[in-house]
Amino acid sequence: MTTSRRITLASRPTGQVQTTDFGSDEVEVPPLQDGEFLLAVEYLSIDPTIRGWMSYDTYLPKIVKGDVIRSAGAGEVVESRNDRFPVGSRVFGMPGWQTHAVQTGGVAIPDGVTYEQALSVFGITGLTAYVGLEDIGKPKPGETVVVSGAAGGVGSIAGQIAKIMGARVIGIAGSPEKCRWVVEELGFDDCIDYRAEDVGAGLSRTCPDGIDVYFDNVGGETLNQVLSRINDHARIALCGAISQYDSGTPAPGPANLINAIPRRALLKGFIILDHMDRAAEASQAMGKWMAEGRLQVRTRARGSGFRPECAEGSVQRRQHRQDAGAGVASVGRGESRSLRVGRAVDARAPRRCPRCPRWGAVGRANREATTPHCPRRASRPASARAARRTRL
């Protein structure tokens, strides 16, 4: 009988997620029924929306106490009574935080697409960025687009799509390294470090002619500052409000919302589950842009143990935007059945050169990599910047 290790919801968080909010157990997997298949989970998507699911009803019901933490994931079919998903096929779905999950449906992962890509650019992350820009933002050549959470999984792709559409793109991120990354590697025109500069002052500096499109991942005061600087007929795609997810009380509405009236602005929220029929279209566009070298997506995984304390760290890091790129967790299996869960960060994030005193060495994988940020090696080709997985 196959068993599954699980991370479950022990209590509803108040404020920041704590280790005590998670539990863990090991259960026997029930026999499959017709139409079901058993997925051996290899990677899990660590998304900020998990924080909301843990506490309250959103577009999905809140997670029931004692149930597996809900999340997207991908893995290999090891047993099947479903002709669409035979043994050996790789599938993307919603298995939750467990090592084995009984599923009835999902999306088959094509050959040549890695698990990391299936959970990022060709998954929910990429589709979210694509729909938000194509359907709501609709940037025109020469317009100014602002993206908050610019170094995150969705924001980093959204900004690149806006550049492909011919817009001038300003990012908002939380460190000099992230800002340097989105400008120097992803092609953003400028980036505001909200930890080092007042966001309002930064927007006035980088958007002297106003803002035409805003892709909002954070809500809060950043949205308020953007609203005071929008142009006529501005479009605001409301994707997330990560700055408010830990708040125990509802935040006051943005004071500058009234500016949307004379500016005739559009503010529209969207949930990606309403747009799953666009997945093939988005994947085709993304694949084409990647082949042309206009969209950069590389990931590397690094992990720690499959334990509640690791779950706490994973959620907090995504919650507070401490990682660049899309966040996923790799689920490793050894002979001892010990499981390791961590996160994958985008390999485009700043890497440090082992030969440069400014940056220093940060591990074997990075010793083999070439970094465009290193002043001594900036002119060297980036042929070694392939996706690597590093266990920490």
For the record, the CATH architecture of the largest domain stands as: 3-Layer(aba) Sandwich
Mean pLDDT: 81
Q: Helix and strand string, N-terminal first?
A: EEEHEEEEHHEHEHEHEHEEHEHEEH
Report the CATH superfamily of the largest domain: NAD(P)-binding Rossmann-like Domain
Global geometry: globular
How many β-strands, per DSSP? 16
Major sheet size, sense and barrel closure: 6 strands, antiparallel
**How much strand?**
15-25%
Terminal CA distance reads 31 Å
List low-confidence stretches: 318-322, 332-392
Helix content: 10-25%
**Count of distinct structural domains:** 2
What is the count of helical runs?
A: 10
CATH topology of the largest domain: Rossmann fold
Gyration radius from CA atoms, angstroms:
21 Å
Structural class, by secondary structure, is alpha/beta
CATH class of the largest domain: Alpha Beta
Describe the structure.
The protein folds into 2 domains: 3-119 and 298-319, Medium-chain alcohol dehydrogenases, catalytic domain (Quinone Oxidoreductase, Chain A, domain 1), CATH 3.90.180; 124-273, Rossmann fold, CATH 3.40.50. It is built from 10 helices and 16 strands. It is globular. The two termini are 31 Å apart. The chain is an alpha/beta fold and 392 residues long. The model is unreliable at 318-322 and 332-392 (pLDDT under 50). It has helices at 49-55, 115-118, 124-137, 153-164, 176-184, 199-206, 220-227, 279-291, 308-319, 364-367, and strands at 3-9, 22-28, 37-45, 73-80, 90-93, 100-103, 107-108, 144-148, 168-173, 190-193, 211-216, 230-238, 266-269, 299-305, 328-330, 340-346. Strand 11 (211-216), helix 7 (220-227) and strand 12 (230-238) form a beta-alpha-beta unit. The strands form 4 sheets. Strands 3, 4, 5, 6, 7 and 15 form a 6-stranded antiparallel sheet that branches. A 6-stranded parallel sheet has the order 10-9-8-11-12-13, sandwiched between helices.
